[in-house]
Amino acid sequence: MDPRPWRDAWWDALYGPDGFYRRDEGPAGHFTTSAHGGLGAVLAEAVGRLADEAGVCRVVDLACGRGELLHHLHDQRPDLDLVGVDVVERPGDLPGAVEWLRSPGGALLPDELRDLDALVLAHEWLDVVPCTVAEVDDEGELREVLVDDSGTETLGGTLTGDDRAWADAWWTSATPGERVEVGLSRDLAWRDLLSRNRSGLTVAVDYGHVRTGRPSFGTLTAYQEGQVTETVPDGRRDLTAHVATDSLGADEVLTQRELLHRLGTRAATPEHALAGSDPLGYVRALGRSSTVAALTDPNGLGGFSWAMTRHTRGHA
After folding, report:
1. GO annotations under biological process (predicted)?
2. Which of 23, 167, 220, 228 has its CA 20 to 30 A from that of 76?
């Protein structure tokens, strides 16, 4: 196919008929997130506490993969109503009590997802809402980046309109070769999600950056089978870019480390005496401490941004 805007190629590669997120193995076949395995069990505890703080009894897990976090929440918190949202059909092993909504993909949300009173968790969703990619050319002009099916890039026309206005306001670049990942599509997706929640809390969790620390050459990255690989929009790999969290206008943005510590989740090493009195309990406590350490590592998962907006009934 001829070169086209990255945003269009990206969408097809992830959400088209043969897109990455529709593959049988699911995202967990290629990478691990905080929602998977033992990490997910600890994360589910934090999500349950956030739901309690928000005064809601429903949790909506948006872009939930194959429902990994929902399994943990179902086991830990049978008092919560749980809803999963993703682009695939309902997973066969999902507990019957969990509701499932199928999403069109990207920024598009199912019509049924509205008038909520819930904790809405968009975990690693905005980073895979495709956005316009632009680059400063040799004359200092910001131009849209085009890409073909092999991943070869060329520069298109000058960036204009709403995308240019967003770049001027949030991510100014003037040096040839610098890139901008225009966050307007993410901002609009976030606002749409907020409008669907009447009371409770809406949260977006992603790697992010702010105006004072934008990456000069962008963050567009591909993952395949656990490895960083070439950014090719072929449907066989994940394509992701970090989120400009400050342009979202959330009420509060914390790192995952800060939030988990606030909720009382810390990596405490168990007393050695426990090894003699309760060896299995000691091993379990060590495992939990290791898991919490991974979730709160400031140079890893603990560096994720949690952008949170609170809702009062009757106001989005």
Report:
1. methylation
2. 23
pLDDT tens sequence across 153-166: 999 999 999 999 99
**Contact criterion met (CB below 8 Å) for 106 and 130:** yes
Query: 38: domain range?
Result: 32-131+183-207+242-311
The mean pLDDT of the chain is: 92
Number of folded domains in the chain? 1
Residue 246 domain-assigned (yes or no): yes
What is the distance between the alpha carbons of residues 207 and 213, in angstroms, rounded to a whole number? 13
pLDDT of 86: 96
The verdict on residue 159 lying in a domain is: no
Rounded Cα distance between 59 and 70, Å, is 9
What's 94's DSSP letter? S
Q: Give the neighbor-by-neighbor strand order of the sheet with 305-311.
A: 99-102, 81-86, 58-62, 116-123, 197-206, 305-311, 252-255
Residue 72 and residue 43 in contact, taking contact as beta carbons nearer than 8 Å: yes
Paired tokens of 55:
């005064």
* Distances, alpha carbon 117 to alpha carbons 39, 81, 120, 140, 306, in Å: 27, 11, 9, 48, 20
17 inside domain: no
Q: How many CA atoms lie within 13 A of 156 on its CB side?
A: 18
Q: What is the CATH number of the domain that holds 100?
A: 3.40.50.12710
